[in-house]
Amino acid sequence: MKIAVVGTGYVGLVTGTCFAETGNTVSCIDIDEKKVNSLKNGKITIYEPGLEVIFERNLSQGRLSFTTDLKEGIEGAKIIFLALPTPPGEDGSADLQYVLKVAEDLGPLLKDYAVIVDKSTVPVGTAEKVRAKIAQNAKVDFDVVSNPEFLREGVAVDDFMKPDRVVIGTNSEKARKLMETLYAPLVRQGNPVIFMDEKSAELTKYAANSFLATKITFMNEIANMCELLGADVDAVRKGVGTDSRIGKRFLFAGIGYGGSCFPKDVQALAKSAEQVNYDFRILKSVMDVNEDQKTKLIPRIKEYFGGDLTGKTIAIWGLSFKPYTDDIREAPALYNIEQLLAAGAEVKAYDPEAMENVRNQIGEKITFCHDAYSAVNNADALLVATEWPVFRTPDFDKLSTLLKNKVIFDGRNLYTLEEMKELGFTYVSIGRETIN
Ligand code: NAD
């Protein structure tokens, strides 16, 4: 099948590449010329494990192409995905300008029946708006379908190729058949393709992300209680996670959630609620708690240095919002950097994949180091912000020698209290006893 994907970012590039991998001919369209040129020349634009190899294969076999020209890109496509940004607008609601602009542009370009698929995360009612925009100038029949994406950055290829489920919102039988055919190779093991009305599909994505953000936040609040009561959040996690109604995943306490999805999606759902005069109280608390949680260790760092960070150098391990991605959108590390710099400290950082993105965003305000140990060399303290595996079993003897003070502030609970005690570190983590 010939398909088109409009928007070639994290979701669009994975969508396009994976559908090419299942034998479709895919044209990816983006307005970012630099991105398109790079992709055309075989240079991948994001770090996503496992993506590069299938990207190269499909590009060289002619199933995957890139263009900035919408007309050329959608030529002959039976299905056109919109994988466009939906960032928070000024009031926190999802900004639909990118999606609606492309919908408007698409109308006059459609030559035959096509299914236009909202893959972006969009509020309830967006499919209707997209349909209206296209209809303004369309001369042919078309359907608009909601097909929210659930991939996780870092494991996006696996998530896409073997999804837990595929959600498709449509009332059109014709669209349903095409979507079923397209997704069939990805759900051969029996994972469900769940068909529903488009509004429910749109809401499903926000419900899933908001629920997960709530689960993390709940555990972060339990961690805060653990600190006050002298309990250990890791023990509590194991105790509650073994209850099959709760489940083991998404229970790790830390310095909050970030990324390009949870913060904006929770905010957008809260805004949607407001627009229909519903007071979604849990979501407000989730946002409040997470806001504080992100920089929860800063007061502890200040306290350690007697309230004054002027001239102190803090090493940060991890800049991306989670491991296995170079995505730094809403990364807790960045909020910590901002507060450390504001307090007069210097920051030396290392991240396996995200340093270029941070440099592009904040310039040379901090020192970027080529490995984890150069970051701690001569630093006054270490702050762990992202749980990249490379930070899990460091050479603690080397750390002791390189750091000016044997002190670790661990926002991701990577080390055991026993080993920290034994090695003589001062160790501050989340929801656990402080080791002095
Ligand atoms: P992104 O910012 O990485 O990519 C969006 C792309 O769209 C960019 O390359 C941009 O240049 C392009 N674009 C903007 N306007 C355009 C236009 N008029 N024509 C063509 N291209 C245009 O965003 P993303 O992370 O891929 O997210 C896309 C959507 O998917 C969002 O709604 C997001 O909430 C949702 N989503 C993201 C993830 C994720 O993990 N990143 C997961 C599930 C859902």
How would you describe what is shown here?
The chain is an alpha/beta fold. The protein is 43% helix and 14% strand. The chain contains 18 helices and 14 strands. It has helices spanning 10-21, 33-40, 51-60, 70-74, 97-106, 126-135, 156-161, 173-183, 198-229, 233-241, 262-275, 281-294, 298-304, 332-342, 355-362, 372-376, 396-402, 417-423; strands at 2-6, 25-29, 64-67, 79-82, 114-118, 142-146, 166-169, 193-196, 313-317, 346-350, 367-368, 381-384, 407-410, 426-428. It has a 6-stranded parallel beta sheet with strand order 3-2-1-4-5-6, with helices on both faces. Helix 1 packs across helix 3, helix 5 packs parallel to helix 6 and helix 9 crosses helix 11 (262-275). The mean pLDDT is 97. It binds nicotinamide-adenine-dinucleotide. Nicotinamide-adenine-dinucleotide (NAD) binds next to helix 1 and helix 5. The site of nicotinamide-adenine-dinucleotide has 26 residues, from helix 1 and helix 5. Pathway: Nucleotide-sugar biosynthesis; UDP-alpha-D-glucuronate biosynthesis; UDP-alpha-D-glucuronate from UDP-alpha-D-glucose: step 1/1. It catalyses: UDP-alpha-D-glucose + 2 NAD(+) + H2O = UDP-alpha-D-glucuronate + 2 NADH + 3 H(+).
Short description, anyone?
The chain has 18 helices and 14 strands. With 436 residues, it is of the alpha/beta class. It has 3 domains: 195 residues, Rossmann fold; 89 residues, N-(1-d-carboxylethyl)-l-norvaline Dehydrogenase, domain 2 (Orthogonal Bundle); 134 residues, Rossmann fold.
